Amino acid sequence: MSAASSAMPLDEMPAGLPPDLAWRWHKQRRKAARREARAARWAPWGGHPLRGWRLPVMILGFIAWWPIGLALLALFFFWRPAMACSSANWTAPWKARMREAMEQRPWSAPASTGNVAFDEYRANVLARLEEERRQLDAQAAEFGDFVKQLRRAKDQEEFERFMQSRERPRA
After folding, report:
1. φ and ψ at residue 78, rounded to 5 degrees
2. Is the predicted pLDDT of residue 41 greater than 80, yes or no?
3. Distance CA 145, CA 150 (A)
4. 79 class by beta-carbon count within 10 Å (0-12 exposed, 13-18 middle, 19+ buried)
5. Count of CB atoms situated within 10 Å of the CB of 76
6. What are the residues whose beta carbons fall under 8 Å from the beta carbon of 17, sequence distance 6 or more?
7. Which of 12, 36, 87, 140 counts the most CB atoms within 10 A of its CB?
8. What is the dihedral of CA 141, 145, 147, 152, to 10 degrees?
9. How many CB atoms lie within 10 A of CB 58?
10. What distance lies between CA 53 and its chain's CA centroid?
11. Whole-model pTM?
């Protein structure tokens, strides 16, 4: 390999390649790009779960006793520390996407469709639904208070029965 070809960037196709070699070069570049993309997908979790020593260990586990192989498979794929939900690498992209979505379109103000009549109709329906939701929340709170009073009354009745049974002289 000459010094000139090693200094050339990999994304640039060498000039003057015959069509069949150009096709092979493009095919090789696509393969390399897929390989890099695959490696990038697994990079935040420490690489592919079955790379290196993990696959032979799992196969030996299946050979020794199948529950061991199954446990190792679960360990390598699901119970790795890098896959924990508390890991910053795992939750950061999700939180960033949620933050972006909330900033772009708040839930209380839907985007306009461009049709004024429909937007007014939608605003009226949403306002009516919001009022119904508030009424249902108020009714749920009232029902919760009612249930608390019933429980308190029942508890008071049971306590009074207990106290009366203690006051009776024993025969």
Report:
1. -115, -35
2. no
3. 9
4. exposed
5. 18
6. 25
7. 87
8. 160
9. 21
10. 29
11. 0.32
